Amino acid sequence: MSQMEEKEQQVQNSPGLSRGLLRIRSHIQDLNPSEKKVADYVLENAGEVVYTSITELAKSIDVSEATVVKFCQSIGLSGYQELKIMLARDGGEADKKQRIYGEIEKGDSLEDAEDKLFQMYEESLASTRRLLDSEAVEEAAEQLLDAEQRYFFGYGASALVAEDAELKFRRIALTATAVSKVHDQKMIASNLGEDDVVVAISDSGRTRELLEAVDILKKVGCRVIAITSQAGSPLAEKANRLLLNYSQESPFRGSAMASRLAQLSVIDMLFLGAALARYDSTNEALQRTREAVQSSKLTP
After folding, report:
1. pLDDT (tens digit, 9 = 90+) per residue, 249-262?
2. Model pTM?
């Protein structure tokens, strides 16, 4: 078995959803109610859909055949036949990787919640690995390396991810700045240009203030890399380059648990892409930063 085949096998055997079902999940918030009915049915019955005609499927869901076709087109496919091919290629696997322990609920012990949370993390990371296009990550990392100025925009939990990115890139002598205030983002955006790069981070891809800043970036010609879990979101559509992460939250949505971890993993891949492209200078920079902070550590 070649190295590439071995890598693909590892991805297929890892936890999480298949590539086809991940594609559907990443578009689900952008579907109209009728299309969402089709999406929900396919996600629950992928193995059966492979052997079902469009007429039978439409009848089962109580929608028109045109709605089924429109759903396929909304997730980037040409039609129903391509949907069946995609599901067959995935092995017809439905969402059998649902959390064994279910959602975190009232009455759960802390130990039960811990089991559920870590399984959520495992699924989030494995599914993000499936969604990430290695070529897109490599090209995004190259853009960050070549940029005159690098900024990371985000709000709330995504702002923490932006701060992590700033720290990582500064450690290897690449100037980067995390920005989480509305006016600051707009002010900075207005003074950037085509030689600069902004990484816009938003799980939903629908944060109004962030989208307003991205609109300014587009006007001045600045390149935008989006990190989001929603392939059909406004942010994904506006970006020059899209890096998808997987997000499937618990009822404790405000804490953005799994999505934050998935976003951090994408940042780590961008960092590694940049670091590997300039391996020797990266090692030198990391050595300098280690030495610089060494005095802050207590000796045994």
Report:
1. 555 544 467 889 99
2. 0.72
User: For the chain, what's the residue count?
Assistant: 300
Q: Rounded mean pLDDT of the chain? A: 85
* Domain at 130-292: CATH architecture: 3-Layer(aba) Sandwich (3.40)
* For the chain, domain boundaries: 14-89, 130-292
Give me the sign of the Cα torsion angle 20, 23, 29, 34. Answer: negative
14-89 CATH: 1.10.10.10
Under the phi-then-psi rule, with left for phi > 0, alpha for psi from -120 to 50, and beta for the rest, what region is 245?
beta
